[in-house]
């Protein structure tokens, strides 16, 4: 039996107190980071293969269904505001299309040709990369997409929570984060989903750092989409240039990003 389908280590949940329930969930969640740690060498190898492609203009695509698809969309959507990249650089695709983000689309994940059809709308290039996200590693939508991407010569990887899954066997890089049975039997939105999000965070954050979208430990290209981020950007400029808050704010508003403001100021003073 696949790990994601194994019975929970806990029983009679409905008879437990609220305190017992949340302590049990928390106890299981603590296993996730340890499981991700075991996959660090594989994750590193994949990122090393991904970087040259992205430096040559390649894009990163996520394909998934249900929770896995939503996690891919979440990570992709966070890249532009965090790193100031184009919305088309990291793209999340979900079985059933955007309407499936909020409401499940019946049988969408069973369409083995669906993912490649969705990918082709983006005029796939040889430098592009596709990551299939599926906790079970058995989702036809994802398997079909990875198979087609392999045939086209793309770099492929998968993030699953079962070892030796059908998806893991065909992806060029298998990231199998085996977190054990879920607290609620089969509910992969719990530990499995947390593990997948952790891996996605690692992949995009590390990649963006190596693509020079971070300076020191600062998001110098972040989009200034609200007052909180404007204040943060102002403080970054003050710290970097040792100038007043007023001047830092003016530079940020004029040049649109921390990086551009700092570069302008330093060039002007040469």
Count of helical stretches: 10
Beta-strand residue percentage: 5-15%
Cα-atom Rg, whole angstroms? Answer: 21 Å
Name of the CATH architecture of the largest domain: 3-Layer(aba) Sandwich
How do the SSEs run, as a string of H and E?
HHEHEHEHEHEHHHH
Query: Could you give the count of β-strands?
Result: 5
CATH superfamily of the largest domain: Glucose-6-phosphate isomerase like protein, domain 1
Biggest beta sheet attributes: 5 strands, parallel
Form type: globular
- Poorly predicted segments: none
Strand order of the largest sheet: 2-1-3-4-5
Average per-residue pLDDT, rounded, comes to 95
Oligomer kind: single chain
Estimated structural class: alpha/beta
The CATH C-level name of the largest domain is Alpha Beta
CATH topology of the largest domain: Rossmann fold
Helix content: 40-55%
- Distance from N terminus to C terminus (CA atoms, Å) equals 67 Å
Q: What is the domain tally?
A: 2
């Amino acid at each position: 039996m696949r790990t994601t389908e194994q019975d929970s280590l806990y029983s009679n949940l409905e008879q437990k107190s609220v305190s017992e329930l949340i302590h049990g969930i928390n106890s299981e969640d603590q296993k996730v980071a340890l499981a991700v740690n075991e996959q660090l060498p594989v994750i590193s190898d994949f990122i090393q293969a991904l970087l040259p492609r992205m430096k040559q203009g390649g894009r990163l695509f996520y394909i998934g269904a249900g929770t896995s698809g939503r996690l891919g969309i979440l990570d992709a959507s966070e890249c532009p505001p965090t790193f100031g990249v184009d919305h088309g650089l990291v793209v999340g695709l979900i079985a059933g299309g955007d309407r499936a983000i909020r409401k499940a689309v019946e049988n969408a994940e069973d369409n083995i040709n669906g993912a490649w059809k969705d990918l082709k709308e983006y005029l796939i290039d040889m430098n592009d990369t596709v990551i299939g996200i599926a906790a079970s590693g058995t989702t036809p939508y994802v398997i079909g997409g990875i198979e087609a991407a392999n045939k086209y010569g793309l770099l492929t990887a998968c993030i699953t929570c079962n070892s030796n899954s059908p998806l893991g066997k065909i992806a060029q890089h298998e990231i199998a984060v085996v977190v054990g049975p879920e607290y609620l039997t089969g509910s992969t939105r719990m530990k499995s989903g947390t593990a997948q999000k952790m891996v996605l965070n690692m992949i995009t954050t590390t990649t963006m750092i190596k693509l020079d979208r971070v300076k020191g430990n600062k998001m110098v290209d972040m989009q200034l989409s609200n007052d909180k981020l404007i204040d943060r950007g102002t403080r970054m400029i003050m710290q970097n240039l040792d100038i007043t808050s007023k001047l830092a704010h003016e530079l940020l508003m004029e040049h649109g990003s921390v990086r551009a403001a700092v570069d302008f100021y330093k060039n002007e003073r040469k």
